[in-house]
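Quick question, first post here. What does this chain look like in 3D?
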Amino acid sequence: MADEKDKKRYAKPLPHIDEENRPWWEAAKRHELYIQKCRDCGDLRHHPRALCTNCMSSNTEWVKCSGKGKIYTFTVTNQNGAAGFRDSLPYVLAWVEIDEGLRILTNIVDCPPAQVKIDQRVEVVFDDVTPEVTLVKFRPAA
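> Answer (accepted):
Ran it through. Tokens below.
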């Protein structure tokens, strides 16, 4: 089965896709960045949830984002013995503050770790790791 073969080739954990987060993953698969917005209080949120974390409303919409932002903070991982991760060393894990005003935990790619800086402008890129899953990552802005 092709899907099982692709999952075995990608050695890192894959996300659990459910009804709450499915629109996030579907947008990523289309190479688009969408986040949730509460229609009642206007709060933006990521990770996707059924209820607004600010006012507890279930009145939610998905809004398209620019895909641009800046690095809020980051760490460089030089050691990780876990399958899949050890082959990617070193890698950068960062909180990216997107221009729409919220932060997303992600990887910084296409940049040597020594060149990553706080407040550095970044843009979204999409990593199609399996036919079903596309990961959202960021790289230095062009």
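Residues 2-9 form the longest helix (8 residues).
The helical segments are 2-9, 22-29.
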